[in-house]
Amino acid sequence: MAKIAKKTAPVSKNKGVMTAPDGMVILFTIVNRKKGDLFADLLQGFEVNFQTILSAQGTADREALSLLGLHDSEKAVIVSVLRRDRVNEALAMLEIKFRTVKDGKGIAYTVPLSSTIGVLLYQFLSNKKGGSLG
């Protein structure tokens, strides 16, 4: 019987978990709920292959909101996965839009994504050829 050679992707020493060599991050963007779709659409231009919008409620009372120049406490939390090489561009765009879009105030921060489970998932999230989840 002939042996069939299997091609394997490089894995870390962490029990088969593939590391993310090109670097990926999770970008959290928190904006007024009514602006959630607008900011999610803007972020799509940075090769974001996974994104979700969560509804959230701020905890500030009306007086605190008024002092900060905010109108309501209903928020959208946009969770996006993107490559590290696109982060500075995305954050710069968000900073401009937070200042120029009416009622577009918000905050954004990133958390490094150090590993993924599965080659296809990594390829899909990082927009690399060869990965298809559909």
Can you walk me through this structure?
This protein has 134 residues and is α+β, with helices and mostly antiparallel strands. The protein has one domain (22-125): Alpha-Beta Plaits. Helix content is 28%, strand content 33%. It has helices at 36-44, 62-68, 87-100, 119-125; strands at 18-32, 50-57, 74-83, 106-116. A four-stranded antiparallel β-sheet has the order 2-3-1-4. The longest helix is centred in the C-terminal third of the chain and has 14 residues, at 87-100. The protein is elongated. The chain starts with 17 loop residues before the first strand and ends in a 9-residue tail after the last helix. Residues 1-13 have low confidence and may be disordered.
Give a quick precis of the structure:
This protein has 134 residues and is of the alpha+beta class.
From the coordinates shown, what is the CATH architecture?
2-Layer Sandwich
Average of pLDDT: 78
Radius of gyration: 19 Å
Unreliably modeled segments: 1-13
CATH topology: Alpha-Beta Plaits
Can you lay out the helices and strands and say which pair or pack?
Layout: E1 18-32, H1 36-44, E2 50-57, H2 62-68, E3 74-83, H3 87-100, E4 106-116, H4 119-125
Antiparallel strand pairs: 1-3, 1-4, 2-3
